[in-house]
Design goal:
Blueprint: H1 3-9, H2 23-33, E1 45-50, H3 53-70, H4 72-76, H5 81-85, E2 97-103, H6 110-127, E3 131-134, H7 139-142, H8 145-150, E4 158-166
Antiparallel strand pairs: 1-2, 2-4, 3-4
């Protein structure tokens, strides 16, 4: 898949088949994430991988219970609030795999670096024919001290990006995109080759 094709055709998938995802494929996605740029090459990411359907079902219930009890205001404003309130709604969309990217302590804003790692992972998944969806509303739950203990994550780490992964059941339609909002475009004086003059 060409890079621009991957960027333009990747979608957030919320419907997955029952087909399992090979452990080797998940390892490839995690490796792709680690090739993201990071400030002064600090590489502040760490990963939790869950390929256990029963555990993901349990975590879906627990995450929703926590979020509705602790953050009802934030969820009521969510664009998918009605779906989230449905008892049958699965927080991870019944995906067979969840990868959570945690930021380790680092000097230069490690969470931003982890977001770039997440984009690498999303594009790599699309390149392999897999579907993936960031599940942002469960971050607060995954950041609880008791959840970090349960997942063997050091308390100093911060949950940045949970991503549900699996084989997609169909391809979602592309939502409309706005034209780029370029507030400033300064090319300076250019010579006849189109290169800015020094």
């Amino acid at each position: 898949m060409e890079l621009m094709d991957a960027i333009l055709t990747r979608r957030s998938v919320r419907s997955f088949t029952r087909r399992p995802v090979a452990k080797e494929s998940i390892a490839e996605l995690v490796r792709a994430a680690t090739w993201a740029p990071s400030a002064v090459n600090q590489q502040p990411w760490a990963f939790v991988v869950i390929r256990n359907a029963r555990r993901l079902d349990e975590y879906s219930d627990r995450a929703k219970q926590y979020m509705f009890a602790a953050l009802p205001g934030a969820l009521s404003m969510h664009r998918r609030a009605e779906a989230l309130a449905d008892p049958g709604y699965h927080a991870f969309h019944h995906a067979p795999v969840l990868v959570v990217i945690y930021a380790k302590p680092a000097q230069y804003d490690p969470a931003r670096d982890c977001c770039m790692a997440a984009q690498n992972l999303l594009l790599a998944a699309h390149g392999l024919g897999l579907g993936a969806c960031p599940v942002g509303f469960v971050r607060a739950w995954l950041d609880l001290p008791e959840m970090k203990r349960e997942l063997d994550v050091p308390e100093s780490c911060v949950a940045v990006m949970p991503i549900a992964i699996g084989w997609p059941h169909g391809q979602p339609e592309a939502p409309p995109r706005q034209e780029p909002d370029v507030m400033t475009w300064d090319e300076g004086a250019a010579d006849q080759t189109g290169s800015p003059q020094s």
